[in-house]
Amino acid sequence: MTASPPSGPHLPQLFDSSEANGPSARSAATVAALVASSLLAAAVGVGWFVRVPAVVHSTGLLEQGRVRAVRAPEAGVVSTVFVSPGDTVTVGAPVAQIDTTELHAVIDGLRGQLEASEAQVQQSVASAPIGRRIQEERVAWSQAQLLAARAALLDRMVGHDLGTDIDSLLAAYRPGQHIAIDGAVSGVRSAEAWHRLELTQVAGSDLAAYDVVRARSLRASLRSQIAALQNRLSLFTLRAPVDGIVVTEELDRLLGAPLPQGGIFAELAELGGWQVRLRIPDRDMRRLHVGDSVVITADDSPVRERQQMVGVLGYLGKAPSLSGSTSTGPRFEAIARLSTSEADRWPLGGLRHGLSVRAEVVTKKDRLIWVFLESLGE
Hints:
Elements: H1 23-49, E1 51-52, E2 55-64, E3 67-71, E4 76-81, E5 88-89, E6 94-98, H2 101-159, H3 166-172, H4 179-233, E7 237-239, E8 244-246, E9 258-259, E10 264-270, E11 274-280, E12 293-298, E13 308-318, E14 332-338, H5 340-345, E15 356-362, E16 366-367, H6 368-377
Antiparallel strand pairs: 1-16, 2-11, 2-15, 3-10, 4-6, 4-9, 5-8, 6-7, 8-10, 11-14, 12-13, 12-15, 13-14
């Protein structure tokens, strides 16, 4: 038997399955793709050309006044720490001492050389007149010996009828002509040589004055070196650059630690004024600008509206690291300055150094597409 079609009312067939792959279906798909592409292009265009304010969230610490670093003018090992975290110091007050044992050893060595130089100068000055007098007497004695030798030669010359011209005889005489005259001529020439030697000694004693000058010059040089090193000693005492509060924790850990020249030993918060130091992730640094507004709220604020201030970014840069620090936190920081009027809005007694705060930095307008993509990354 053949099945009969169902009786009763039924809906008409509106779509013929045989036309699913027909030209009309392909046209509809093409139109849909074009519409989607147009919408995507329009969205990208809007995202590129439209700029909207962006907000960067961060956390930080409240600080009293600007923070100034206590740096080491000279490299060395920290031998003494004079302050503790939270101490209030005045400008110029000693904060720490760098070991000066080696420098003192150098100064002591120079002082020893100076003492020897001064003794040499005193000896030279005191002995110069005596030496000069002795040389003069030796010259006089040698001159007397020469006169005696010439007199003996003259006596021999007269006794042998050789005349009285001693100088002519000495110039022309050849040894071996007469034994008596040989001895007398030899005595004269020996006395002349001795007399010349004594005159040379007198000239040499005149050079001793130059030795005194040289010793005095050396003494002045040593004194200058000692004075320079003593002035340098003052640089080994680290002093507070401003009136402020010591904000660096665990200073005792730096005792005995090496500190490079220019290295940061501690930080002081200047008295007066308030600011917030924020640690900024690397990805957000591009979005921040000096002058951006910052809304600051205390972490433990029970009433947000009452404990909220608005500051302005005044600094952007790399976060400093203290000597001996092994921190692996954000590499960048921002500092928001707070006006006196904003600080006065905070409840009495609520502001304190080191208070943890939250911050929302309202940056300058950025392209909508970057804000959207960065939000997806977060």
